[in-house]
Amino acid sequence: MIGHLEGVLLETEDRSLLLNVQGVGYRIYCLPETLLRLARKEGEKISFWTYLAVRENALDLYGFEDKEEKRFFELLLTVSGIGPRSALSVLSVSPVATLTSAVRSGDVAYLTKVSGIGRKTAEKIVIELKDKLGIASVGEQGELEDEALVIEALKSLGYVHGDIREVLKSIPKEITGTSNRIKAALRHLGK
What we know:
CATH topology of the largest domain: DNA polymerase, domain 1
Shape: globular
Number of strands: 5
CATH superfamily of the largest domain: 5' to 3' exonuclease, C-terminal subdomain
Distance between the termini: 42 Å
């Protein structure tokens, strides 16, 4: 029903933001990293791809700056037992490309280890989305293993998951290999 909104950012809170669209304030639930990034942009014009969740007693808007995040969010909603808040939680732990690789390769362990969701839920996600996302290539499976090792190494050094995820997004894909990616991540985290 409401697929896209553009307006002025009024305020950000811990799980949502308020967007003024021609005098109407829309409460939009977003990924934590999006809220952190936008916290300094109050008063500026922004736009979101949105998903309207209709429940018996509420209409909730979920917003995404990236159309791919919205598409994956909607795919997660097709999994039985996954609601909008759970789907947003899953998306908040890894980039869409990494989650897609994990599902394609059937890596339940990665999903449970990285996202903190239970094994049964991770298995449901893999089973129900695997056909929709296609089969993983050998390269994707290796990249996924590298990504998991990088995350584990940085967590063991005391970095928090949100910071790790942001840094991994900024590392160019040309930098390959676990040790090279860890070094690149540490350079970014050290700034």
